[in-house]
Amino acid sequence: MTLPVGWKKISLRHLADVRTGLSKSEKRQGILIKRPYLRVANVQDGYIDLSEIKAIDVPVNQLERFTLHEGDIVLTEGGDFDKLGRGYVWENKISDCVHQNHIFAVRIHDRKTLNPWFLSFQMQSRYGRKYFLSCAKQTTNLASINAGQLKQFPVLFPSFNEQLGIIEFISAWDLAIEKIVQLASAKEKVYSYALSYLFSHINHPHTHINTFAAEVTKRNKNAAYKRVLSVTNRNGFVLPEEQFNRRVASTDLSNYKVVLNGQYAYNPSRINVGSIARLDDYDMGVLSPMYTVLQLDETKVNSDYFKHWLNLHEAKERIKRSAQGSVRETVSFSEFSSIHMPLPSMEKQKSIARYLNSVREEIALLYDYAEKLKLQKRGLMQKLLTGKWRVRPDEGEVTE
Prior knowledge:
The chain is of the alpha+beta class. Among the domains are: 8-157, Alpha-Beta Complex (Adenine-n6-DNA-methyltransferase TaqI, Chain A, domain 2); 208-304 and 325-339, no CATH class. The protein has 10 helices and 26 strands. The mean pLDDT is 91.
């Protein structure tokens, strides 16, 4: 790669210290002090999640070695492919925080030569990802790098002023993405409030699910259908190879259950954590024999109305309670179908479903827009952080 005019290429070891973290399993001796503890789960792609910070005992004589400083770049050493080299700049929102041994802390020597945000962006760009994957130790679905490989990272950087200009451009995309996600989150709260009000705070007549739903046990005779599906609590129906990066299924699919578009299915041992969904994205598929498939009588219940009811906190609690008492906390169809739920007239059901559908559509559009902005940002980063596009800070423009 030919360096752009005015750019340098220097190994990270000449520009920064790479610090390893504190092992949770170590037996510690001497005087200990409890400190907040940054784990791999906290370090996300492009942000640090501080919603749950645990604590750990640290020997007093090792505090300085493991304590994060403002401006450190924290990076995960690996795990799943998407976690390799994932990181962000530590902004010291929690003081005196130490870090896990599976997280590197990169501390730049001279921040007037290399800006931490510039380096962090470059490591998260395609250029950075490509380097990490090229040298990572890889096994099935897993990859990791060591401190030595990280120290050899070839940092590309321009003048300090141009770095600041690049940071400003990329940060503008980050701000736009943040605002869109905040708006989507606000809409999620509107949806949750509407769910609670429309289902729980209006005096609807109630009925058992078994008055309008029936279990379906059709098998995949002669293994005629090949599309194996799973049901997750976050994404509904998914292809197992997308969820687990591999196909998880028996070689003989003849005993698998058939599920058709519009039918619902759930895993009896995971419905208590929300693993129930309607098949919308495929005409049909097959599920492991352990799944329960059900068909609604849509002359009695609106399918969208029922789908929204499943998102209601009260509905989830009733499902959890129906699992209590069983050895494995499974929910059979007879137990699920005996649950009471509000069921007004068909006209009222459709009205409620139309409104809630419109809110969900708005939320989906916002998240889709945020994903498009993220895609644009990745393309922008690849160009700006390798010098293919140049930022002229004094002129406030980007040129090729």
